[in-house]
Amino acid sequence: MKKSTSAILVFMIAIQMFTIAYSTGVERSSAAAAEALSEEARERLEELVAQNILPDSFQRNLRQAITVDELARLYYREERGLDQIEIDHPGFDENTPDYIKAAFLYGMIDDLNDLKLTMTRAEAAKRISKSLTYTVGTDVFTRDFASVKPSDFHAVGNVLSASVIPAIQGNFQPNKPFTREQAVIGMDAHSSGNIRGILPFSGLNGQESITVGSNYAYLSFESAEDAKEYIGYQVKNMTKGVKLTGKQQRIDVGFAILELWTPTHEVKFTFKNGLERLRFRGNSVLYGTFVYTNWHGEGYLAEPRELKAAEKANLELQPDSVHRKLYARTDQILKKILKPNMTEEQKVKAIFDYVVTQIKYSSGADYISAANALKAIEEGRGVCAHYTSLFHYLATRAGIPTIPLSGPSFVGEHAWNMVYLNGKWVYVDTTLADGKKTIDYTYYLKDAMFMMKTRTWIGYGYPDINIYPEVDGMNLKTTEELRVYLLRKMAESRTEPPKKITFKVAGAKVDTDVKFLTVVSPEYKYKLNYDSKNKLYTMIRG
Question: Where in the numbering of this chain does the Transglutaminase-like domain appear (predicted)?
Answer without folding.
Answer: 376-432
